[in-house]
Amino acid sequence: MAYNQFTLDEVKQRLGVTVREEPELFARVTPVPVSDLLREYLHDAAPLALAFSTEKARSEMIIAPILLEVRRQRKGEVSLFSGAEFSVDPERGLAGFCDYLLSLSREQLSIEAPVVAVVEAKNENLRLGTPQCIAEMVAARIFNERRERPLAEVYGAVTTGDVWRFMRMRGATVEIDMTAYYLRDVELIVAVLLQMVRTPL
Known about the structure:
The chain is α+β, with helices and mostly antiparallel strands. It has a single domain, classed as tt1808, chain A (Alpha-Beta Complex), CATH 3.90.1570. It contains five helices and eight strands; from the N terminus they run αβααβββαββββα. Strands 1, 2, 3, 4, 5, 6, 7 and 8 form an eight-stranded mixed sheet that branches.
């Protein structure tokens, strides 16, 4: 079993996760200015990606540039991985390749703890991408603990490129922000992602 094969029932039963829907989980986050580079790129690339309507186009032309902006704003303190293998506990199904991982580390050659999972929703369906993201968040929590860098909170995001949904895991409870964040509010999307990769206390 791999991350993308989990259903919501399976993450609850097999991984012991409790799921709670929380409206406006990140409502207190203040939008941050984004670079002219990102704004100009999205102005040209996003309409093309949405017109192509392929996962590859959305991934390369929308999602990756936004995550690069997060890395840029953190001045290289965050590493970004795309399509990386993240096999943490294969016996529990916590294995496979992740669409994107953000790691609070400068190291780019290997994944270091802690990590934020970002899942590209397949078939433009956020609901279908949610259990995959939760499974990757559970794996991130285990990964962090094994590296002796446990965190009180682990974060995740599911996106179609033009729509984003964010999650926070505390213990065995995953809170899903039921607010949809749209690409037109990219300053807010970047702000939430920046909060996820803030330096832990």
